[in-house]
Design goal:
By secondary structure, the chain is of the alpha/beta class. The chain is about 35% helix and about 25% strand. The chain contains 15 helices and 23 strands. The longest helix has 18 residues.
Length: about 500
């Protein structure tokens, strides 16, 4: 365990004692379980806890660390670093607010990482083996594999079940970059073990994780190169939204090498890495102290013996239908191992679908979920529903309403005007089909629009909802007001004028 969890300080020892106790003794298997869940990340934990809470007999199998990526090498540690980086940037930019910071003020990176490890260990009891045992779940630590559709082996033990759930998640994928196999590099699984701030850091991949960590380490003081094969950053997002984030990354000192071609890696003196790449017709030859590879995910399907039980899979993961059932009707899947939406909250709600369908003959559908997501740069980008481009591709005509944050009083007062709220509605109606928010707290703000979409509320209802002044969330109501103003056509205005003229007499 110490080979992947480092440094082996008290905080990480506390973490491991919760999520993979060294002295854990697997229980004696029950005669038959309603569910055997393979994988103890978000999807597996929610499935196991929810099913047990409803009275099911459940076994949970985890080969490594309970809590999965989210707790150990994903959401929790990354957001701890992002919050520290935000403080560093606030100090750096505080002169704009009249603050005088003593010259030479520096970040203590080792202390920042220790804080992250302490907070992670403090959250770990929620996902601990002991807690799930107390919930009545049989927790097995070890490798799980299928013997048949109703039997899972864990070491020399056999778990019999009515249904099984594959929730083994995904890991950082290894891209075919020349020279990558000759160097030491970081992924999200090893980044959080750093104890020294790299003077120069290269990040390959300008997706959400790449952008978040590039900005955070630049704010810590690293010289950061961000390499991306296509133009710009965050290619999945609304181009205007991504442009706001790119401006922020540039302000923080990140150097973007986009449209990168002929990328090659090789060892350099002192354990460093040499990176060569062509970007917009210019050749770069750079030496960096650390390299973070962040270019996608690969499903954890090895060792499960899925072929033995007729469960189909591809390089993208386990194949499931809309009810999250695999090609073997006794086996379901949830979370990153089968979902195109690789978010903790998506895994959570997929788990709820599995519980309904596997235990209670339910017909809940994954396609019915309205899933928002957020990239936690500063400003954040949050999105829900369709992008304008997707709507066009599906033949859906839309009206789009955008409120820039530099027209929102709270954003102006806080000096956070680089952002927007953009909502797409079905043309001629107030029915919301998608929205993108760029703001310091966009991830919180998007929930109001997600609620409206899931409950069938339109922009008219949002326009009539009073928001406190001054708040950034007022921008949502202001977008709705923009829609209401389109209802005041010249004909309607003329009618109002005639009526009000009559009222004066």
């Amino acid at each position: 365990m110490t080979t992947t969890i480092s440094p082996w300080d008290q905080h990480n020892q506390d973490l491991v004692n919760h999520v993979h106790p060294p002295d854990w003794i697997n229980p004696k298997p029950a005669g038959r379980y309603n569910l055997v869940v393979i994988g103890g990340g978000t999807a597996g934990l929610v499935t196991a806890a929810g099913a047990a809470g409803l009275g099911a007999k459940v076994a949970l199998v985890e080969r490594h660390l309970l809590g999965g990526d989210c707790l150990n090498v994903g959401c929790v540690p990354s957001k701890a670093l992002i919050s520290a980086a935000r403080v560093a940037a606030t100090v750096r930019d505080s002169s704009a607010f009249g603050m005088q910071i003593p010259a030479g003020a520096q970040l203590d990176f080792a202390a920042t990482m220790a804080r992250m490890r302490k907070l992670r260990a403090g959250i770990a009891p929620h996902d601990s083996a002991a807690r799930f045992r107390e919930l009545g779940i049989d927790v097995f630590l070890g490798e799980g594999r299928f013997l048949d559709a109703h039997t899972i082996a864990v070491d020399d033990q056999r778990l019999r079940c009515s249904h099984a759930v594959i929730a083994t998640g995904a890991r950082a994928s290894v891209p075919p970059i020349p020279g990558l196999d000759q160097i030491n590099y970081l992924t999200n699984e090893t980044l959080f073990s750093l104890t020294e701030l790299p003077k120069r850091l290269a990040v390959i991949g300008a997706g959400p994780i790449g952008c978040e960590m590039a900005q955070a380490f630049a704010r810590f003081g690293s010289d950061v190169l961000l390499v991306e094969s296509v133009h710009g950053i965050l290619p999945r997002e609304d181009p205007d939204a991504a442009a706001h984030v790119l401006a922020a990354l540039t302000h923080d000192g990140v150097t973007l090498l986009c449209c990168g071609q002929e990328l090659k890696l090789s060892p350099a003196h002192g354990g460093r890495v040499r990176l060569t790449v062509d970007s917009h017709g210019k050749a770069y030859d750079e030496i960096v102290d650390q390299l973070l590879v962040s270019v996608g995910r690969a499903p954890n399907i090895e060792g499960l013996d899925l072929e033995k039980v007729g469960v189909a899979f591809t390089k993208k993961g386990v194949t499931v239908d809309d009810h999250l059932r695999t090609t073997n009707p006794a086996i379901y899947a949830a979370g990153d191992v089968c979902s195109p939406y690789q978010f903790t909250h998506a895994a959570d709600f997929m788990a709820r679908i599995v519980i309904q369908n596997a235990l209670f003959f339910g017909r809940a559908r994954a396609s019915a979920l309205t899933i928002p997501w957020c990239t936690y740069t500063e400003p954040e980008i949050a999105h829900v529903g369709l992008y304008e481009k997707q709507a066009r591709e599906q033949g859906i005509a839309v009206d789009t309403f955008t409120r820039p944050l530099d027209e929102v009083d709270r954003a102006v007062l806080e000096g956070r005007t680089d952002g927007m709220v953009r909502v797409h509605v079905r043309k001629g109606t107030d029915k919301i089909i998608g929205a993108t928010i760029v703001a310091a707290n966009a991830g919180d703000m998007i929930s109001e629009i997600t609620l409206a979409m899931t409950q069938g509320l339109g922009l008219k209802q949002l326009a009539s909802t009073i928001h406190p002044y001054p708040t950034q969330a007022e921008a949502v109501r202001q977008v709705a007001d923009m829609y209401n103003r389109t209802r005041l056509t010249p004909r309607v205005r003329a009618m109002f004028k005639r009526f009000l003229t009559w009222r004066r007499h």
